[in-house]
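Notes from the 1:1 (GR / supervisor)

We went over the backlog. Supervisor wanted to see one worked example end to end before approving the batch request, so GR pasted a single chain during the call. The sequence is below; no edits were made to it. Supervisor asked that the structure be written out right there so they could see what the output format looks like.
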Amino acid sequence: MAAGDHGVTARGVSPYPAEVTAQMVANFLRGGAAINVLADHAGARVRVVDAGVRGETPEHPDLLRLRLGAGTADIVEGPAMPRALAKRAVAAGIALIEEERAGAGLHIVGCGEMGIGNSTAAAALVATTTGRPASAVTGRGAGIDDAGYARKLGAVEQALERHRAGGNSAGDGIGLVASLGGFEIGVLAGVYLGAASARVPAVVDGLIAGAAALVAAEIAPACTPYLVAAHRSVEPGHAAALERLGLEPLLDLGMRLGEGSGAALGITLCVAACRLLDEMATFEDAGVSDAADAVAPEA
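Structure output shown during the call:
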């Protein structure tokens, strides 16, 4: 779970204020969020990264305080962050995987996020990497009203115009994070890269996690076979991201919560599949005749 704030939030692109990001981080660490319940169900540990939250986050053994900045800059006005910080964000995600593997070990990882305004940044990233117009990949995020959606769509369109005018390349993953992304998106991209390097499957949550996967695929296309799409959310940009990545979602339940909630459910299905392979008896083991043993009836 990577968390970060976004300067574009000041444009009224979300129904919630930026302060909610820090408040939700505290809730994750207290164990009171949906992801905590679902991760416990999946037998997974919730690790939270303060990649760039504007407010104060509490001291906690499950919190990694990276704090690359107090949120990104407004992507309409200019790049989200300097390129050097984008590199640091991705490198931190890779290092997190290495740390977890060196500790208790790591068999599967689920990627989720928290950041008010980050669906705006994610929509811009999806539009850039898929070549689709902003209107086709920009959704209502946390449930913004019509006026708010108009502001959000306008912000994505302006950010894309600014990005293109700067001569940025869609194939430059680090450049994408720096220009249009978020600190938490960069960290998640690094987690995907680190997991693939370690041959560990990474379960992708919704739109923002999907946008981070697109960034990772631009940096190292060979990482995509290690990605598992947990679900297809109601956000139109998420379906576009999954199509670009060539991923078929395990679930299609109209989910839109974020937090990694879909990834936790995806992990339970992955574990169930592995247990079936390991523990279920074959027809031969169980003494059950298969179709090849059947005798064709006489004509």
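Supervisor's comment: The first helix runs from residue 19 to 30.
Batch request approved.
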